[in-house]
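Hi, here's the filled form for the chain we discussed.

Project: internal
Contact: R.S.
Residues: 139
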Amino acid sequence: MASSVLWQQLKSFIVRYPIARGMISYSLIWPTGSLIQQTFEGKRWGNYDWWRVFRFSMYGGLFVAPTLYGWVKISSAMWPHTSLRYGVIKAAVETISYTPAAMTCFYFIMSLLESKTVQEAVAEVGKKFLPTYKVFNPI
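And the returned structure, exactly as it came back:
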């Protein structure tokens, strides 16, 4: 019975604060991706890098979710229509504007979470940004 009450309270909280749903989701999705990647690297339960999993959880829940929430709010205000044409426009603008900023933040923030210096984080962005963007960029 207590779990039912907790579930109802969680649902009510998420309805009241929609950003919380994304924060909960991304704080689970990102570390799951890290675990999958580590599994492909040959690691198993006993030797997963749990600090890495934690960093991905913090990044997903505390950075990705709020920035995506903000981007969706802004893009929906700029292009309120839901047609295919406007969807393509939103995707193109996102590829040009949001994606480079998100990739830069990922490399920079994750470097800082790994206890690297600001200079090392900047170097990490410089080393990885362009190769990643060239692979990702579908346009």
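Let me know if anything looks off before we file it.
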